[in-house]
Amino acid sequence: MNSTQNNINIAWPNSQKASGLNTLEEIKKAADSCIKCKLCETRTKAVVQDGNPLAKLLIIGEGPGEQEDLTGIPFVGKAGKLLDKILEAAEISRQNETYICNIVKCRPPENRVPAPAEIEACKPYLLSQIEIIKPKIILLLGSTSLIGLLGMKNPKITKLHGQWIVGTEGILKDIWLMPFYHPSYLLRNQSKEIGSPKWQAWQAIKEVKQKLIELNAD
Ligand code: SF4
């Protein structure tokens, strides 16, 4: 069902669209041999997850890049290193306090944006991951995450970055969602001046840390 929040049109995903797989191991196994979209033809390794399955903070990126495709681990290339720095600066432990995955599990050739059909084919795995992890907060990195998970049309990450959106129904009900700049975008925008994307990212990650503290106190 669609709903509007903060003037944003969202199609909340529900359980019926999930994969039906009940464990992260099953999802990993299914993705490793998945042929549901063309990305299977060029992948080296499917990239399913990293971090702590018990984490309250779920981070969702777009898709694997070269290093991720080779290692099978999300966010290990340059963008991943910057993500690590952002988390460290806010004293959020990547390994203990986050679970990280992507909209599509296989690398799009030349790191192109995943096609709508590829996003839809892979979505059941992502929805099952969310059902199993049961995060309290989801950080949505870049506009592909907003399109892939929330069904947004042409989202403007520069406008949405740092805004809290609270899930109202389906799998995302009561989850605190925050659109956030993709680290690749931050790599291309190095300024740290007040108001710059990096400065905004720092403000936003501090809010995420604060929300984690509040939720841990509940
Ligand atoms: S991207 Fe997703 S749907 Fe496509 S082959 Fe890989 S695991 Fe399957």
Question: Can you walk me through this structure?
Answer:
The chain contains nine helices and eight strands. It has 218 residues and is an alpha/beta fold. The chain has one domain: 3-Layer(aba) Sandwich (Uracil-DNA Glycosylase, subunit E). The strands form two sheets. Strands 3-5-4-6-8-7 form a six-stranded mixed sheet, with helices on both faces. Strands 1-2 form a two-stranded antiparallel sheet. Strand 1 and strand 2 form a beta hairpin. The longest helix has 21 residues. It is globular and about 45 Å long. Bound molecules: iron/sulfur cluster (SF4).
Characteristic terms for this protein:
binds iron/sulfur cluster; Uracil-DNA Glycosylase, subunit E; two-stranded antiparallel sheet; 218 residues; 40% helix; alpha/beta
Secondary structure topology:
Elements: E1 2-5, E2 8-11, H1 24-32, E3 50-51, E4 57-61, H2 66-71, H3 78-89, H4 94-97, E5 98-102, H5 116-133, E6 137-141, H6 143-150, H7 157-160, E7 165-166, E8 176-180, H8 183-188, H9 197-217
Parallel strand pairs: 4-5, 4-6, 6-8
Antiparallel strand pairs: 1-2, 3-5, 7-8
The site of iron/sulfur cluster (SF4) has 13 residues, from helix 5.
